[in-house]
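Appendix B: complex inputs.
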Amino acid sequence: MWNWEFAAEALPILLRGFVNTLIATVVGTVIAAILGLILAVAIRGLPRWINWLVRLIVAFIRNTPLVVQLLFVYYAFSDIPGLVDVPALVIGFIVIGIHYSTYMSESYRSGIDAVPPGQFEAATALSLPPVRTFTAIVLPQALRATIPSLGNYAVAMFKDTPFLFAISVVELVTAAKEFGGSTFAYTEAFTLAGIIFLAASYPTSLLIQRLDRRLATY
Amino acid sequence: MPPTENTPTTASASSHPAIEFKDVEKSFGPTTVLKDLNFTVAPGERVTLIGPSGSGKTTILRLVMTLEELTGGYIFVDGQPLTHEDRGGKRVELPKKRTREMTTRIGMVFQQFNLFPNMTVLENIIEAPVHVLGKSKVEATKEAKELLERVGLADKADAHPTRLSGGQQQRVAIARALAMNPEILLLDEVTSALDPELVGDVLGVLRDIAETTDITMLLVTHEMQFARDVSHRVMMFDGGQVLEEGPPDQIFNNPQHERTRKFLSSVL
Amino acid sequence: MNDNVTTLLNFLPQLWEGVQTTIILTVAGSIGAVIIALILGLTMTSPTAWLRIPARIVVEFFRGTSLLVQLFWLFYVLPLLGVDFDPMACGVAALALNYGAYSAEVVRSSIKTVAPGQWEAAIALSLSPTRRMVRVIFPQAWALMIPSLATLLIQLLKGTAVVSFITLSDLTDKTEQLRQSTGDTMFAYSISLLIYFALAWLLQEFMNFLERRATKALGRRRPNSRTDRREARRAARADAVRKDRLKSHVAAGEGTNHTKGPFPGQGGDL
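Resulting structure:
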């Protein structure tokens, strides 16, 4: 039922796939974190109707499947004639990044909202220009409240990277499936894939929980 | 208004004290709140516990209601062990079911009322009589309505607790406790969460109960006038120990201890 | 464009089949997830360690090992072990287990969030542990957990799209067929995303309806006593800080969030 030889053979292949998983997670997180912040800040300054439109788009991206979005963008790119081949992995982390930026923008927004009004008032009393108020006073405090949220979404994103299977990115699970397909050692391949996921995500979650508790106590 | 009688009624046939604390010890982790506590409350007696915050008086009520785990010693209700018993020199915990049978004889009213928001006033009151005592719904409802009448809320039977004022909620909570026909009623700072103008109604209801029933009462309160009026005995606690005790007149007019004097002057 | 419309009209019956598959997966998966969440979540509140710890391990296991791994395991590995589920059963099981594990944490934390005074009052009335949970604690926890469950069930709906990887012809799979027959990616996928969005909206509306019912059963808070005002101020302040953190915990499978917004699955207004 369980064959150690297959397991040993599968492991390096899976770990090579895991590199892509990590790339997608890290780059995706960076994109989501930056784009999320831009969204959160931009929404505050926009006129009402554009604001509403942006919110609708954000809700749309958030409430439709990542898999479908991946396929959509993947095919849309391949439809454009004369375009240099964009690697699927790049499409993957861009789409994942955009998908999760809709979640993260919400985190930033509530972080900014949570900054006590007294802080704005104090900054105004000091005649600080608005940009300075935002970057030096509001943002650092908001980020403190936001970081654990971003961490949680990064972990959620990590667990969503197997969806890249849809556009044939050879990440961990795709690698496992390919290995299983050629050897029929599905048991070893998928069990190992599960263990790798668990081994990476569970300690990270615990770490974020601890960070959350530390940051929660001002 | 002075207590209806100066000595507690001994109407109950049993010769046991209503409540007995024997070598009671309570600690929360490393901090000991109560140590070597021994006292008894006679049937029908009304005892007020006073003392600075952190002196352990609320903990005593919570121990009797089994809301806190007794870490040492024994509590007896009507001579029967409540949570632990001595079996051949060994302190043994009683089965939970047994403890729950004992607690049906005890009622408690809380500082924060703690009415169940998902039930109407009437449902709050009949829940335990029907499902713990096994009364019929009709009988329980009839009794509940009488109790509501008594606490002046006959028209609120079908209201949701969250729509009532604090004072009304607390009177419902009293009715809910009384619906179980408790031998012992524990009152834990029942007026502390109320707006000042609502305190009177609640105390009025309690005075009425004190006058017309022989329920044993153990109360923690900051309403010193009320304590003086209804209680047979006042116990002053400090640092988990009984500092002094006696009839209300003696404790309030002529305290023996400097600490009692200081405490009283700070609250009166 | 007209060609597209003609193709779409001809394709409608097939598209509807795909939508039905997606709906069946969502509904069956959600029911399974909620049942699993209730069992595991309640077990995790048990004072008995040998009940609580195994439940916790199961929850962490299914949260930690990614939906697709679980789906492929059920689909490819189980037959090797001699257990053969059809793809639909695999899909429903994977969705129920994965999102059930996340929801279990929501159930647990909602039960823990019910005010300690409610437990105490139930003990003071000598209610049995079962009666206490069923009549007093759970109805209150239920109102707390619905918004978070809504977030998770919408994620479940989005998660159904992976079943096209195990030969099931759901909406995602039909979308691909439509793309191939029209040759128009934009057209096919826009329609698909709109349908998913509409389904998410329906699901959110249904959960909002459940939430309204649950909060109504708890009665409305009388807004003007002193304690209420103080509480409201404190709650508003604490809420702003906590709100989103909790929401991300739900994504990571922890905590509860108590907000909802104008758009499905959004939680809180943007």
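Chain A touches chain C through 66 residues (CB under 8 Å).
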